[in-house]
Amino acid sequence: MALNLLPPNATRLERVLAEVCGVIGDLPVTIREIMDPDKCPVALLPWLAWAVHVDAWDDAWSEAQKRAVIKSAYQVHVQKGTVASVESALAALGVTADVVEWWQQSPRGVPYTFRLDVDTENVGMTEVFAQSIERQVAAVKPARSHFTVQFIAKTRPAISVGVAVQDVIITSVYPKQK
Fold this sequence. Notes:
Layout: H1 12-21, H2 31-34, H3 45-51, H4 63-78, H5 83-92, E1 96-101, E2 113-119, H6 127-140, E3 146-152
Parallel strand pairs: 2-3
Antiparallel strand pairs: 1-2
Helix pairs in contact: 3-4, 4-5, 5-6
InterPro entries: Tail_protein_I
Protein name: Phage tail protein I
């Protein structure tokens, strides 16, 4: 407990507050570390997410995804209601997606709708994670817009090309003649 510097005429409330607040200095983690997504203890990440107004939170996310979502919260709120906010929110989860708006579709789609073409190659896609993606997009999309999600599994064949070249050059070095 910290040294009590209250005057002798302090009220009971002031003494209790001084006693309770005196242990704040004994906490193992500083406030600065708690507010830093990289240094915040894992158990406190949901509280930090609440403090920076993360709209959609899922406890099933990995620690890296949670920290990335918290880091991107400011940028997402600055861009909220735009295609860029949807892309930023998905990038924080490690998801690559193409946003195709209604006027970009052929034939044209229903006005104020968009489609997400989610690439599932680098993401372990489960039903829970798919619902998490939908919640994340719903939280940051333009309020008037509706969306659909298409999960696309792209195959990328690996083509290996090998070339071997062997060349022999014989060089003779002679001493300089005088």
